Amino acid sequence: MNIHEKYMLRCIQLGKKGIGTTAPNPMVGCVIVHKDQIIGEGFTSPYGGNHAEVNAIKSVKDNTLLSKATLYVSLEPCSHFGKTPPCTDLIIEHKIPEVYIGLQDPHDKVAGKGIEKLKASGCNVTIGILEKDCRAHHKRFLCFQEKKRPYVVLKWAETQDGFIAPDAKVRKKTPEPVWITNTYSKQLVHKWRSEEQAILVGTNTVLEDNPKLTVRNWEGKHPIRVVIDKDLKIPSDFHVLDTSVKTIVFTQITDPSNYLNGIDYELIDFSIPIGKQIFSALYKHSIISLLIEGGSKTLQTFIDEGLWDEARIFKGPTTFKNGISAPKISGRLLDTKPILSDSLSIFEND
């Protein structure tokens, strides 16, 4: 690993600090170097705030060094006005002579324009430093820009005998979850919720578990709730409809008198595959990442349509003997690790 790659690796490390807060913006990291010493660092602020380059430049104590410094950034600096002014203008204003970029931004408002603008100002620009690592780091943003859909993480827990939920006959009358995994796995799931922009479940999961779909066992932002409710069967007093969190409901009911105030409703055609329809609507809502927590029918819908990127599957020590079978999936196994009595397997869609 050469020195440029080391500084880019630091950009990626910094960018990770923005996980769960920057969406729909990417989690960019930026480092400024003078005479082999880092004099400034920054990462993307929560959405609507400063970009990484702005925060890095602001962190430099002696601004006179910027005209002799090198800037490293994991993604091409923006060249357009959005929530904030163009980062390229700030780099040019401070006469930073050299810029190393991890990868080009595929966003149609950027897409090489930032690089061209920097070069036109006389800046020496190098692209493609640790490009593979930068692509992996920016996987959510890149999926949204290139595939026009959110980056999708499937998650479920299953028993040793392959069930995701017990038989309805043995469940309590009051809707509540039946836990398969331990408290450490549960906490990890709440961490994941804080990292993704939205979370999706189907009608049956809501009716059986009455979940809140919020972040409680971890510090972080609640994801946007996405619920599939074809016939609007979910009672208005259930947690997912309490309007405490932005909530999108997908339905076939066209009569707005059935809609609740404070909930966003999206109409789709349930007579044809629903996955792409849902993603098309979520794209309009600028949702770049989605955690799908079930149940089995909902998960299998997205698996069968090939609309997933990662699957995180827990296996607990319990057995149900009867119940709802876990989804069937094939993909490339990336990792398997124990979480005390549970095991976690992570797959990617190959």
Automatic annotation (TrEMBL):
Pathways per UniProt: Cofactor biosynthesis; riboflavin biosynthesis; 5-amino-6-(D-ribitylamino)uracil from GTP: step 3/4; Cofactor biosynthesis; riboflavin biosynthesis; 5-amino-6-(D-ribitylamino)uracil from GTP: step 2/4
Residues that bind NADP(+): 157, 179, 205, 209
Record flagged with keyword Cell inner membrane: no
GO molecular function terms listed in the Swiss-Prot or TrEMBL record: 5-amino-6-(5-phosphoribosylamino)uracil reductase activity; diaminohydroxyphosphoribosylaminopyrimidine deaminase activity; zinc ion binding
Binding-site residues, Zn(2+): 51, 78, 87
Residue numbers annotated as active site: 53 (proton donor)
Gene Ontology biological process terms in this record: riboflavin biosynthetic process
InterPro entries in alphabetical order: APOBEC/CMP_deaminase_Zn-bd, CMP_dCMP_dom, Cytidine_deaminase-like, DHFR-like_dom_sf, Eubact_RibD, RibDG_C, Riboflavin_Biosynth_HTPR
One Pfam family in the UniProt entry: RibD_C
EC numbers on record: 3.5.4.26, 1.1.1.193
Cofactor(s) needed: Zn(2+)
Reactions this protein catalyses: 2,5-diamino-6-hydroxy-4-(5-phosphoribosylamino)-pyrimidine + H2O + H(+) = 5-amino-6-(5-phospho-D-ribosylamino)uracil + NH4(+); 5-amino-6-(5-phospho-D-ribitylamino)uracil + NADP(+) = 5-amino-6-(5-phospho-D-ribosylamino)uracil + NADPH + H(+)
Domain CMP/dCMP-type deaminase: 2-126
Ranges annotated as spanning the membrane: none
Family stated for the protein in its record: In the C-terminal section; belongs to the HTP reductase family.
Function (record text): Converts 2,5-diamino-6-(ribosylamino)-4(3h)-pyrimidinone 5'-phosphate into 5-amino-6-(ribosylamino)-2,4(1h,3h)-pyrimidinedione 5'-phosphate.
Protein name: Riboflavin biosynthesis protein RibD
